[in-house]
Design goal:
single chain; alpha/beta; eight-stranded parallel beta sheet; 10 strands
Protein backbone atom coordinates (compact mmCIF):
# COMPACT_ATOMS: atom_id res chain seq x y z
CA UNK A 1 0.00 0.00 0.00
CA UNK A 2 1.16 3.49 -0.85
CA UNK A 3 0.19 6.58 1.12
CA UNK A 4 0.28 10.16 0.00
CA UNK A 5 -0.89 13.63 0.95
CA UNK A 6 -2.76 16.43 -0.81
CA UNK A 7 -2.98 20.07 0.15
CA UNK A 8 -3.84 23.44 -1.36
CA UNK A 9 -0.55 25.30 -0.82
CA UNK A 10 -1.04 28.99 -0.02
CA UNK A 11 1.00 31.79 1.52
CA UNK A 12 -0.45 30.70 4.88
CA UNK A 13 0.56 27.02 4.74
CA UNK A 14 3.83 25.25 5.38
CA UNK A 15 5.80 25.93 2.16
CA UNK A 16 5.87 23.06 -0.37
CA UNK A 17 9.60 22.42 0.02
CA UNK A 18 9.32 22.14 3.79
CA UNK A 19 6.16 20.06 3.61
CA UNK A 20 7.82 17.74 1.11
CA UNK A 21 10.74 17.18 3.45
CA UNK A 22 8.45 16.53 6.41
CA UNK A 23 6.34 14.11 4.37
CA UNK A 24 9.35 12.18 3.08
CA UNK A 25 10.88 11.90 6.55
CA UNK A 26 7.65 10.33 7.81
CA UNK A 27 7.47 7.71 5.06
CA UNK A 28 4.83 9.13 2.74
CA UNK A 29 5.13 8.11 -0.89
CA UNK A 30 3.66 11.19 -2.57
CA UNK A 31 2.50 14.79 -2.22
CA UNK A 32 -0.19 16.15 -4.53
CA UNK A 33 -1.30 19.71 -5.12
CA UNK A 34 -4.81 20.70 -6.31
CA UNK A 35 -5.46 23.92 -8.16
CA UNK A 36 -7.75 26.73 -9.12
CA UNK A 37 -6.17 29.33 -11.38
CA UNK A 38 -8.62 31.88 -9.95
CA UNK A 39 -12.18 32.15 -8.67
CA UNK A 40 -14.48 34.57 -10.52
CA UNK A 41 -15.84 37.12 -8.04
CA UNK A 42 -19.23 36.99 -9.79
CA UNK A 43 -19.34 33.20 -9.68
CA UNK A 44 -22.80 31.63 -10.00
CA UNK A 45 -21.74 27.97 -9.96
CA UNK A 46 -22.28 26.48 -6.49
CA UNK A 47 -19.34 24.76 -4.84
CA UNK A 48 -20.13 21.01 -4.77
CA UNK A 49 -18.86 20.76 -1.19
CA UNK A 50 -21.39 23.15 0.36
CA UNK A 51 -22.51 26.75 0.58
CA UNK A 52 -19.27 28.48 1.57
CA UNK A 53 -16.33 28.38 -0.82
CA UNK A 54 -13.12 27.40 1.01
CA UNK A 55 -10.77 30.27 1.79
CA UNK A 56 -7.84 28.63 -0.02
CA UNK A 57 -9.50 28.19 -3.43
CA UNK A 58 -8.57 31.60 -4.88
CA UNK A 59 -5.27 31.68 -2.96
CA UNK A 60 -3.41 28.51 -3.91
CA UNK A 61 0.03 28.48 -5.49
CA UNK A 62 0.52 27.19 -9.03
CA UNK A 63 0.75 23.39 -8.66
CA UNK A 64 3.71 22.93 -11.00
CA UNK A 65 5.74 25.53 -9.10
CA UNK A 66 4.80 23.82 -5.83
CA UNK A 67 5.77 20.44 -7.29
CA UNK A 68 9.17 21.71 -8.38
CA UNK A 69 9.84 23.19 -4.94
CA UNK A 70 8.91 19.95 -3.18
CA UNK A 71 10.85 17.84 -5.67
CA UNK A 72 14.12 19.74 -5.30
CA UNK A 73 13.90 19.51 -1.50
CA UNK A 74 13.42 15.71 -1.47
CA UNK A 75 15.03 12.56 -2.84
CA UNK A 76 12.32 9.89 -3.10
CA UNK A 77 8.97 11.63 -2.65
CA UNK A 78 6.67 11.60 -5.67
CA UNK A 79 5.11 14.97 -6.47
CA UNK A 80 2.01 15.55 -8.52
CA UNK A 81 -1.22 17.33 -9.29
CA UNK A 82 -4.33 16.28 -7.49
CA UNK A 83 -5.97 17.49 -9.59
CA UNK A 84 -4.77 19.66 -12.47
CA UNK A 85 -7.52 21.48 -14.36
CA UNK A 86 -6.05 20.65 -17.75
CA UNK A 87 -9.14 22.09 -19.43
CA UNK A 88 -7.86 25.51 -18.37
CA UNK A 89 -4.25 25.14 -19.56
CA UNK A 90 -2.47 25.25 -22.89
CA UNK A 91 -1.40 21.66 -23.65
CA UNK A 92 2.00 22.54 -25.15
CA UNK A 93 2.98 24.63 -22.13
CA UNK A 94 1.51 22.01 -19.78
CA UNK A 95 3.50 19.23 -21.45
CA UNK A 96 6.70 21.24 -20.97
CA UNK A 97 5.84 22.07 -17.34
CA UNK A 98 5.26 18.49 -16.30
CA UNK A 99 8.20 17.14 -18.30
CA UNK A 100 10.43 19.78 -16.70
CA UNK A 101 9.39 18.77 -13.18
CA UNK A 102 9.77 15.10 -14.10
CA UNK A 103 13.31 15.86 -15.30
CA UNK A 104 14.17 17.94 -12.22
CA UNK A 105 12.84 15.24 -9.90
CA UNK A 106 14.46 12.33 -11.69
CA UNK A 107 11.12 10.85 -12.71
CA UNK A 108 9.01 11.37 -9.60
CA UNK A 109 5.82 12.96 -10.94
CA UNK A 110 2.15 11.94 -10.98
CA UNK A 111 -0.35 13.75 -13.20
CA UNK A 112 -3.82 13.79 -11.66
CA UNK A 113 -6.48 15.39 -13.86
CA UNK A 114 -10.20 16.13 -13.78
CA UNK A 115 -12.95 17.97 -15.60
CA UNK A 116 -13.62 20.70 -13.05
CA UNK A 117 -16.89 22.12 -11.71
CA UNK A 118 -16.64 25.92 -11.90
CA UNK A 119 -18.42 27.04 -15.08
CA UNK A 120 -17.30 30.66 -14.87
CA UNK A 121 -13.68 29.79 -14.08
CA UNK A 122 -13.26 27.55 -17.12
CA UNK A 123 -15.16 30.02 -19.32
CA UNK A 124 -12.51 32.63 -18.51
CA UNK A 125 -10.00 30.24 -20.08
CA UNK A 126 -12.16 29.75 -23.17
CA UNK A 127 -13.56 26.31 -22.28
CA UNK A 128 -17.30 25.65 -22.30
CA UNK A 129 -18.60 23.45 -19.51
CA UNK A 130 -20.39 21.07 -21.87
CA UNK A 131 -17.25 20.36 -23.88
CA UNK A 132 -14.82 20.05 -20.99
CA UNK A 133 -14.35 16.27 -21.19
CA UNK A 134 -13.62 16.34 -24.91
CA UNK A 135 -11.20 19.22 -24.32
CA UNK A 136 -9.54 17.23 -21.54
CA UNK A 137 -9.12 14.13 -23.70
CA UNK A 138 -7.62 16.06 -26.61
CA UNK A 139 -5.20 17.94 -24.38
CA UNK A 140 -3.98 14.77 -22.70
CA UNK A 141 -3.62 13.01 -26.04
CA UNK A 142 -1.69 15.97 -27.42
CA UNK A 143 0.60 16.04 -24.39
CA UNK A 144 1.36 12.35 -24.83
CA UNK A 145 2.37 13.03 -28.42
CA UNK A 146 4.76 15.75 -27.24
CA UNK A 147 6.17 13.57 -24.44
CA UNK A 148 6.81 10.52 -26.58
CA UNK A 149 7.84 11.89 -29.99
CA UNK A 150 10.76 14.04 -31.10
CA UNK A 151 8.51 15.65 -33.67
CA UNK A 152 4.92 15.83 -32.46
CA UNK A 153 1.68 16.97 -34.02
CA UNK A 154 -1.99 16.78 -33.07
CA UNK A 155 -5.16 17.60 -34.96
CA UNK A 156 -8.41 17.62 -33.03
CA UNK A 157 -11.49 19.76 -32.61
CA UNK A 158 -10.10 21.71 -29.64
CA UNK A 159 -6.33 21.14 -29.95
CA UNK A 160 -4.63 21.58 -33.26
CA UNK A 161 -0.95 22.02 -34.11
CA UNK A 162 1.44 20.89 -36.83
CA UNK A 163 4.82 19.28 -36.18
CA UNK A 164 6.74 20.78 -33.26
CA UNK A 165 9.97 20.20 -31.33
CA UNK A 166 9.61 20.40 -27.58
CA UNK A 167 12.05 19.26 -24.90
CA UNK A 168 12.73 18.09 -22.24
CA UNK A 169 11.02 14.73 -22.49
CA UNK A 170 9.89 13.09 -19.24
CA UNK A 171 12.31 10.77 -17.47
CA UNK A 172 9.47 8.29 -16.93
CA UNK A 173 8.69 6.25 -20.00
CA UNK A 174 6.53 6.51 -21.90
CA UNK A 175 5.39 9.42 -19.70
CA UNK A 176 4.33 10.22 -16.11
CA UNK A 177 1.25 8.28 -14.96
CA UNK A 178 -2.05 10.00 -15.79
CA UNK A 179 -4.54 9.62 -12.91
CA UNK A 180 -8.09 10.38 -14.05
CA UNK A 181 -10.56 11.65 -11.46
CA UNK A 182 -14.31 11.14 -11.47
CA UNK A 183 -16.95 8.47 -10.99
CA UNK A 184 -19.13 6.19 -13.09
CA UNK A 185 -19.09 4.40 -16.42
CA UNK A 186 -18.07 7.41 -18.50
CA UNK A 187 -15.13 8.03 -16.21
CA UNK A 188 -14.11 4.38 -16.58
CA UNK A 189 -14.20 4.77 -20.34
CA UNK A 190 -11.99 7.85 -20.08
CA UNK A 191 -9.51 6.05 -17.85
CA UNK A 192 -9.25 3.17 -20.30
CA UNK A 193 -8.92 5.49 -23.28
CA UNK A 194 -6.25 7.90 -22.05
CA UNK A 195 -5.48 7.26 -18.36
CA UNK A 196 -3.04 5.10 -16.44
CA UNK A 197 -4.92 5.05 -13.14
CA UNK A 198 -8.35 5.82 -11.76
CA UNK A 199 -8.47 8.34 -8.88
CA UNK A 200 -11.98 8.73 -7.45
CA UNK A 201 -12.84 11.07 -4.62
CA UNK A 202 -14.10 9.00 -1.69
CA UNK A 203 -17.79 9.55 -1.01
CA UNK A 204 -18.77 8.43 2.49
CA UNK A 205 -18.44 4.70 3.08
CA UNK A 206 -19.26 3.78 -0.53
CA UNK A 207 -17.93 0.46 -1.81
CA UNK A 208 -15.89 0.64 -5.01
CA UNK A 209 -15.45 -3.07 -5.62
CA UNK A 210 -18.04 -3.20 -8.42
CA UNK A 211 -16.67 -0.07 -10.09
CA UNK A 212 -13.11 -1.41 -10.05
CA UNK A 213 -14.36 -4.69 -11.48
CA UNK A 214 -16.23 -2.89 -14.29
CA UNK A 215 -13.20 -0.68 -14.97
CA UNK A 216 -10.97 -3.67 -15.46
CA UNK A 217 -13.55 -5.48 -17.58
CA UNK A 218 -13.44 -2.46 -19.91
CA UNK A 219 -9.65 -2.51 -19.77
CA UNK A 220 -9.55 -6.20 -20.72
CA UNK A 221 -11.86 -5.57 -23.68
CA UNK A 222 -9.49 -2.83 -24.83
CA UNK A 223 -6.51 -5.18 -24.54
CA UNK A 224 -5.13 -3.46 -21.45
CA UNK A 225 -3.78 -4.90 -18.22
CA UNK A 226 -5.68 -4.24 -14.95
CA UNK A 227 -5.67 -0.53 -14.14
CA UNK A 228 -4.52 0.64 -10.68
CA UNK A 229 -6.79 2.74 -8.47
CA UNK A 230 -5.81 5.58 -6.13
CA UNK A 231 -8.28 6.88 -3.53
CA UNK A 232 -8.41 10.64 -3.00
CA UNK A 233 -9.67 11.91 0.39
CA UNK A 234 -8.73 8.57 1.95
CA UNK A 235 -10.20 7.70 5.36
CA UNK A 236 -8.03 7.74 8.45
CA UNK A 237 -9.60 4.62 9.94
CA UNK A 238 -7.43 1.48 9.83
CA UNK A 239 -10.33 -0.88 9.13
CA UNK A 240 -11.68 1.28 6.31
CA UNK A 241 -8.27 1.46 4.68
CA UNK A 242 -7.98 -2.31 4.83
CA UNK A 243 -11.45 -2.68 3.29
CA UNK A 244 -10.56 -0.42 0.40
CA UNK A 245 -7.24 -2.19 -0.08
CA UNK A 246 -9.14 -5.45 -0.47
CA UNK A 247 -11.43 -3.77 -3.01
CA UNK A 248 -8.41 -2.98 -5.17
CA UNK A 249 -6.92 0.39 -4.21
CA UNK A 250 -3.13 0.51 -4.13
CA UNK A 251 -2.61 4.15 -3.10
CA UNK A 252 -4.40 6.34 -0.57
CA UNK A 253 -4.20 10.14 -0.54
CA UNK A 254 -4.99 11.93 2.72
CA UNK A 255 -6.24 15.49 2.38
CA UNK A 256 -4.61 18.09 4.62
CA UNK A 257 -6.25 21.32 5.67
CA UNK A 258 -4.19 24.32 4.47
CA UNK A 259 -2.58 25.21 7.78
CA UNK A 260 0.80 26.31 9.07
CA UNK A 261 3.46 24.12 10.64
CA UNK A 262 2.02 24.27 14.17
CA UNK A 263 -1.14 22.47 13.01
CA UNK A 264 0.17 20.47 10.05
CA UNK A 265 3.10 18.69 11.67
CA UNK A 266 1.09 17.04 14.47
CA UNK A 267 -1.38 15.88 11.82
CA UNK A 268 1.48 14.41 9.79
CA UNK A 269 2.69 12.61 12.92
CA UNK A 270 -0.75 11.06 13.47
CA UNK A 271 -0.99 9.94 9.85
CA UNK A 272 2.54 8.55 9.96
CA UNK A 273 1.57 6.43 12.98
CA UNK A 274 -1.39 5.14 10.97
CA UNK A 275 0.52 4.21 7.82
CA UNK A 276 3.21 2.38 9.81
CA UNK A 277 0.54 -0.18 10.67
CA UNK A 278 0.48 -1.20 7.00
CA UNK A 279 4.25 -1.34 6.44
Amino acid sequence: MKFGLAIFPTADTLPPANLGQEAEQRGFESLLFPEHTHIPSERKTPWPGGSDLPYEYPRNLDPFVAMAAAATATEKLKVGTGICLAIQRDPIIMAKELASVDYISGGRTLFGIGGGWNVEEMANHGTEYGSRWKVLRERVEAMKEIWTKDEASYHGEHVNFDSIWCWPKPVQKPHPPVLVGGHGERTHQRVVRYGDEWMPLRRGDTSYADEIKKLNELAAKAGRDPIPATMFFAPTDEAELEKYREEGFHRFIFYLEPKGADELLPKLDDLADLIRKFN
